Amino acid sequence: MSKSRKHLFIKGRVQGVFFRATMQDVAHANSVTGWVKNNYDGSVETVLEGEIENIEKVVRWCRTGPRGAYVSEVNVKTEDYTGSFSTFSISFDRW
């Protein structure tokens, strides 16, 4: 199997709807590592690493999100796989 890395920017009503917490569960269930965080502009940003098929499952989930979310746009960038994550975490960056 082949490893991949995706960097996503998710827009819409994606903050305050448990997007990050649910995404962490989805990532863990699919053996995907990386991180997710809220951005100042109301979007959610995430980096995913793992098997291509597993990452695609998480990306598909991101296009809908958890109940209560409204996803209007998902921008996906493919980056070089680094293998630098051991788990999937929620970042609590302060603006």
Description:
- With about 100 residues, this protein is α+β, with helices and mostly antiparallel strands.
- The protein has a single domain, classed as 2-Layer Sandwich (Alpha-Beta Plaits).
- Helix content is about 25%, strand content about 40%.
- Strands 4-1-3-2-5 form a five-stranded mixed β-sheet, with helices on one face.
How does the SSE layout of this entry go?
Blueprint: E1 3-13, H1 19-29, E2 33-38, E3 44-51, H2 52-62, E4 70-79, E5 88-90
Parallel strand pairs: 2-5
Antiparallel strand pairs: 1-3, 1-4, 2-3
Summarize the structure.
The chain has helices spanning 19-29, 52-62, and strands spanning 3-13, 33-38, 44-51, 70-79, 88-90. It is an alpha+beta fold and 95 residues long. It has a 5-stranded mixed sheet with strand order 4-1-3-2-5, with helices on one face.
How would you describe this structure in keywords?
2 helices; alpha+beta; 95 residues; globular; 5 strands; single chain; 40% strand; Alpha-Beta Plaits; five-stranded mixed beta sheet
Rg, Cα atoms, Å: 12 Å
Structurally, the number of domains stands at 1
What is the first-to-last residue Cα distance? 38 Å
Instruction: Describe the strand arrangement of the main beta sheet, using strand numbers.
Output: 4-1-3-2-5
Low-confidence stretches: none
Biggest sheet character: 5 strands, mixed
How many runs of DSSP E, i.e. beta strands?
A: 5
CATH class: Alpha Beta
Give the % helix: 10-25%
- The CATH topology assignment is Alpha-Beta Plaits
- In percent, how much strand structure appears in the residues? 35-45%
| H/E series | EHEEHEE
Coarse shape = globular
Average pLDDT value? 96
Class per helix and strand makeup = alpha+beta
